[in-house]
Write a structure and sequence with these properties.
The complex is a heterodimer. By secondary structure, chain A is an alpha+beta fold. Chain A has helices spanning about 10-20, 20-35, 45-50, 90-95, 105-110, 120-130; strands spanning about 50-55, 60-70, 75, 85-90, 115. By secondary structure, chain B is of the alpha/beta class. In chain B, the strands form 3 sheets. An 8-stranded parallel barrel of chain B has the order 1-2-3-4-5-6-7-14, surrounded by 7 helices. The chains are: A alpha+beta, B alpha/beta.
Chain lengths: ~140, ~350
């Protein structure tokens, strides 16, 4: 699989940006909790607990807020300033998740924006890098 | 000129189990890794190996006929050096193929405790001449030395010609300010340095500021660089910052660039380099896969026919995308002056 270099059209972004972000955010935290439960995401929650996160998909103008406690991820409140803010276009987030592209490369090329607690950002990045997808059906979508 | 030099080993970095597998799957001969603490110079939150992942990784590499090196390349800090001793004990118990050490006190510990354990001298030992390397061989029976990125190719040859210790050189990755093993720059801003705490810019001191015009990088409050719109960024290390010197603002110490020796592979093979190292344990599996695949292809091509070896544009393109600061250089290897 190779992600095309695509930016979502502004008209689509205008529509997506107006939709409530709760359903995609709920899907995100449910996925995270499932991966954690199945021990695919081997996360030390004590490193993330009490922190809030924002994933901003720039070309969809969509902001996903979630928080972590000692056990779970849950949908967050988008009125507070997150501890960690990550922003990129949808295609670049997809490339990062599927290991087509290195987050540092995207950052050097100014395609990935990291704001807030840099150490928390590093923890999240290294957590995603350490997931061994070979134990899951998702392996066939991964570039590496 | 010897006609049939063996190809140098391709030594690739791994900060996680998937990165190790990516290195092995894409043609690394050897993978190097560190433990989850300050005994190695990439002591980043969430990076590196615990006992279980190290065991799995070593098993995977050995299953594929590849080697694993454990980097214990910081200097044991006074007061409590038990962590460093434990790391050596753990490496020996895990069955790694060699341990990479910088601190001669640790070399002695490893040699005394584990006479059969193969020792490599880290780049952080800062040994740039054959006398230093041969001394470490006499005293601690080191089998390989990693040369700092400060020598020209002629100087590397000079070292190789006067030692029977294997010589490893850097082939690709972010460049250090070139006083490896002696750098105290980051202590100036944060009180922590690579040799003492295993990291140049501890993440807890780093802040990225997104302004209207520019992206600012601060290390413990000190503004070390500002990147304009579209300008490639680098790691937030002091050595690669832009500073105001007598009214002029520029890279006063070093520009963020990546080393790339691809064009010199035939000469590197000819002078008898034993191994080529790729920097970047902090990078993701995607980087490890792309760099390993590209260098494997290039190295095999140079091995097949050195005379007709030419760097393919696709290789340059693949590596330039990954480079810090998006610039590549031959570094010190290609200095015409002596």
């Amino acid at each position: 699989m190779h992600i095309p270099d695509l930016t979502l059209p502004t008209t689509l972004a205008n529509i997506l940006g107006k939709l409530p972000s709760t359903p995609p955010c709920w899907a995100l935290v449910t996925t995270l909790n499932q991966l954690k439960k199945r021990e695919i995401l081997q996360v030390d929650m004590s490193l993330l607990s009490g922190h809030s996160f924002e994933v901003h998909i720039l070309d969809a103008d969509m902001r996903l807020h979630f928080v972590a406690d000692d056990d779970h991820f849950s949908v967050g409140n988008n009125t507070t300033v997150p501890d960690l803010h990550l922003a990129a276009n949808l295609a670049d987030f997809a490339r990062m998740m599927l290991r087509e592209e290195d987050p540092d490369t995207l950052f050097f090329n100014r395609k990935l924006v990291i704001e807030g607690d840099t150490e928390l950002g590093l923890i999240v990045k290294n957590l995603l890098d350490s997931v061994d997808w070979s134990a899951t059906p998702l392996q066939r979508f991964m570039a590496v | 000129m010897p006609a049939t030099r063996p190809l140098p080993e391709l030594v690739c970095p791994a900060g996680s189990l998937p990165a190790l597998k990516a290195a092995v799957d894409n043609g690394a001969d050897t993978v190097y890794l560190g433990l989850k603490n300050d005994t190695n110079a990439r002591n980043f939150a969430g990076l590196n190996f615990d006992d279980r992942t190290a065991r799995d990784g070593i098993h995977y590499a050995h299953q594929h006929g590849r080697k694993v090196l454990l980097a214990i390349n910081t200097y044991a800090q006074g007061g409590d050096i038990s962590r460093w001793h434990r790391a050596i004990d753990e490496g020996a118990a895990l069955g790694v193929d060699a341990i990479i050490l910088a601190d001669i006190g640790l070399m002695k510990y490893a040699r005394d405790r584990y006479p059969d354990l193969r020792l490599h001298m880290s780049v952080q030992s800062s040994a740039t001449n054959y006398e230093a390397i041969n001394l470490a061989q006499d005293m601690f029976d080191i089998r390989r030395a990693v040369l700092p990125r400060v020598l020209t190719l002629d100087q590397v040859k000079q070292v190789i010609d006067h030692t029977n210790v294997e010589i490893e050189v850097f082939g690709f990755g972010s460049l250090c300010v070139m006083v490896e093993g002696r750098c105290l720059l980051s202590s100036y801003a944060t009180g922590e340095s690579p040799n003492s705490h295993g990291v140049c810019s501890p993440a807890k001191f780093v802040r990225w500021e997104h302004g209207q015009q520019a992206l600012g990088a601060r290390l413990n409050g000190i503004l070390i660089d500002e990147y304009q719109q579209g300008e490639a960024a680098g790691y937030p290390t002091l050595c690669k910052g832009r500073f105001e010197v007598e009214g002029d603002t520029y890279y006063a110490l070093e520009e963020p660039t990546s080393l790339n020796v691809m064009s010199m592979l035939p000469q590197i093979i000819d002078i008898g380099v034993a191994a080529i190292k790729v920097e970047g344990r902090q990078r993701s599996p995607a980087y490890v896969a792309q760099v390993t695949r590209t260098l494997r292809e290039a190295l095999d091509a140079a091995g097949r026919d050195k005379q007709r070896f030419a760097v393919k544009p696709a290789w340059t393109q693949a590596l330039s995308k990954l480079a810090e600061g998006q610039q590549q250089t031959l570094g010190a290897y290609n200095r015409p002056w002596k």
